[in-house]
Amino acid sequence: MDTARFIAGDPAVKITRVGPRLWHALDGETVAGRGEATTRPDGRVFLSVDAWHRPVFDRLAQEMLAASEEPLHTVVDETDHELLEAWQQAGLTIRRREWEYLVPTRVTAAPPAGVTILPTGTAEAGRLRELDRVIREEVEATVGWAEMPAEVLPQPAGADPAKYAVATEDGEYAGLIRVAQATRLPRIGLVAVRAARRRRGIARALLNHALGVLHLAGIETASAEVNEANAAATALFDGLGARRANSVLELVRHGR
């Protein structure tokens, strides 16, 4: 089976900017490629290009890079060697690797003594927003949001109780978890615990709860993205019997 990303050919395209962050490569009246620059809530700008022909990709990337303020990022499946090479030749370099884990769901033991899990939709909105604010400030003050998995986006408006389960310890909100179920393979979007309450089994309890809910719904597997450099997170998922199914590279080009 031919798994090549690009097909042969070099259409005589014209690159046209059709929006503030959107470009088209036009072969006559036909759109032969599209490029987009997306600003995430943490301020990082991510580029994406969709084109059948490598020369079209190159021209779109050149136009986008020239017109956008750096640093600029993109995300590439590590097995997509042609796309990785194309972005590297455009001047981006590998910044970090994220592992995609496939996590088996199951019903497990109760959380540690003193820890209670509030199911999705039952947390008090005000206390959840405060927990969300504190955790995000702690992340920004330490590793920074730029070190979080690329698919984990800050939410400046605060957390929505309908999307989060919360762990309490001795009555205090201590950690939270969000599971996105937009596809057949649910994704663990974020699991985080307040710095002062880590290493007490709270993150594992949150994951066990979320995986148990999925298991009871008839779902056998969930996915999660973990920064390769996050030893605690990789140990946590390895301990749950998760397996590494794929890896994603984040690339960046810094201002010159």
From TrEMBL:
<dbReference type="InterPro" id="IPR000182">
    <property type="entry name" value="GNAT_dom"/>
</dbReference>
<dbReference type="Pfam" id="PF00583">
    <property type="entry name" value="Acetyltransf_1"/>
</dbReference>
<protein>
    <submittedName>
        <fullName>GNAT family N-acetyltransferase</fullName>
    </submittedName>
</protein>
<feature type="domain" description="N-acetyltransferase">
    <location>
        <begin position="126"/>
        <end position="256"/>
    </location>
</feature>
<dbReference type="GO" id="GO:0016747">
    <property type="term" value="F:acyltransferase activity, transferring groups other than amino-acyl groups"/>
</dbReference>
<dbReference type="InterPro" id="IPR016181">
    <property type="entry name" value="Acyl_CoA_acyltransferase"/>
</dbReference>
